[in-house]
């Protein structure tokens, strides 16, 4: 009986294999870190790290984060996928506040199906996260044509990364807000407890 691919199989065999050459450059690097990002540690020491992060390269060090990603296998529950989406919104919001970036891109991969989102600060304490593209990545050589079929979507994401700018200082100062780790939000996002109410839904 064939065993389905788990998260740590999908990342090197599908996700990283395709996204790294498309998103990385001499100025940026797609990584799969095992530590908190600077954007998160600036306000908390609790570990909530993304599966993937695209960082600027500053000499021999990594700079600001431009993209975050979360990966789950096809067998993951809708609830876990919904929690990952909430986590991505937090990572993006923290990155906007930390680097004053006008926009941050995130992606959520469930198996080979990957959805990209764009997060922005648009007004008084209002951060939005809008869906950009949903792309099905090839899971084998026979499906390699899927890359060509989605080349315009990949190119749009590439252009957005290339043209990222900073928020006007006055606009940022008057409109950004601190991220609050409320007990209610922590309860929603807690993966360790099996018996708890569910306030999130995916699909």
Explain this structure to me?
This protein has 7 helices and 6 strands; from the N terminus they run αβαββαβββαααα. A hairpin with a 2-residue loop joins strand 5 (113-123) and strand 6. It is an alpha+beta fold and 203 residues long. The chain has a 6-stranded mixed sheet, sandwiched between helices.
Concise overview:
The protein has 203 residues and is an alpha+beta fold. It contains seven helices and six strands; from the N terminus they run H-E-H-E-E-H-E-E-E-H-H-H-H. The chain is 36% helix and 26% strand.
Helix/strand-derived class? Answer: alpha+beta
- SSE arrangement, N to C: HEHEEHEEEHHHH
How large, in whole angstroms, is the Cα Rg?
Answer: 17 Å
The global form is globular
Spatial order of the strands forming the largest sheet: 1-2-3-4-5-6
Question: Could you say how many structural domains there are in total?
Answer: 1
Q: Indicate the percent of residues in helices.
A: 25-40%
How many helices does DSSP assign? 7
- Sheet with the most strands? 6 strands, mixed
Proportion of residues in β-strands: 25-35%
